[in-house]
Design brief:
- Pfam families: TAL_FSA.
- Keywords: Cytoplasm, Schiff base, Transferase.
- It comes from Lacrimispora celerecrescens.
- InterPro entries: Aldolase_TIM (IPR013785), TAL/FSA (IPR001585), Transaldolase_AS (IPR018225), TSA/FSA_arc/bac (IPR033919).
- It is found in: Cytoplasm.
- The chain is of the alpha/beta class and about 230 residues long.
- It has two domains: about 190 residues, Alpha-Beta Barrel (TIM Barrel); about 35 residues, no CATH class.
- Helices cover about 55% and strands about 15% of the residues.
- Helix 4 packs across helix 5.
- It is globular and about 70 Å long.
Length: about 230
């Protein structure tokens, strides 16, 4: 499973990259607005930091297919042809996906709440389909189950589209999809930090340190002891 950061703060992105093995960054209009800078200023900064080969996903704002394609061209011009253009999975969005795939663009179908949306995006040629796991939960359905269903639909129908699960609230949701083998998950920095946070691990490490210092002295490590 690819491991992607869902954020636009360059400081947070750098912090996560420093610790974790990361495959790229996703953004959306709300995340960019929260960051407070002009969108392409932020996106160029991210692209420069993560490099040309890492995945960068950027969403269009237009509601009509023609406008979406025009935005996609601007995104590609500014950030590179390998940038994934996020297209909302609406009727107009499906049309835009087909047109962009004919041009060889990388396309991520976003705003997915149903399995059928994802199937139609896959038929349109999308590289990724992004179900909103926790938002689906909030509607009274099961977001993890929906993402698993979508993964199975793609495999059973011979579609190359991969799941890019999004909108996580906790590490358990991420774990279940990792175990299932979905293609990718994009995760906010706070949930990423929660993936490794475990008080029992901290207690165990502290106990090892205390025992070792009892043998060799306070602050001593393996490089210091005889």
């Amino acid at each position: 499973m690819k491991f992607i950061i869902d954020d636009a703060s360059i400081e947070k992105i750098k912090e996560i990259y420093d610790t974790f093995a990361v495959d790229g960054v996703t953004t959306n209009p709300s995340i960019l607005a929260k960051n407070g800078k002009q969108p392409f200023e932020t996106l160029r900064e991210i692209r420069e930091f993560i490099g040309p080969e890492a995945e960068l996903h950027v969403q269009v704002v237009a509601a009509d297919a023609e406008g979406m394609v025009e935005e996609a061209h601007r995104i590609q011009k500014e950030l590179g042809m390998n940038t994934y253009v996020k297209i909302p999975t609406t009727k107009e969005g499906l049309k835009a996906m087909k047109d962009l795939k004919k041009e060889g663009a990388n396309v991520t179908a976003t705003a997915i709440y149903t399995q059928m949306q994802a199937f139609l995006a896959g038929k349109a040629g999308a590289d990724y389909a992004a179900p909103y796991v926790n938002r689906i939960d909030n509607l009274g359905a099961n977001g993890v189950r929906a993402a698993k269903d979508i993964h199975d639909i793609f495999k059973k129908n011979g579609l190359k589209t991969e799941v890019l699960a999004a909108s996580f609230k906790n590490s358990q949701q991420v774990l279940e999809l990792c175990q299932y083998g979905v293609g990718a998950s994009t995760i906010s920095p706070d949930v990423i930090e929660g993936l490794i946070k475990n008080d029992t691990v901290t207690m165990a490490v502290n106990a090892f340190t205390k025992d070792f210092e009892g043998l060799c002295g306070a602050g001593m490590t393996m490089k210091d002891c005889m």
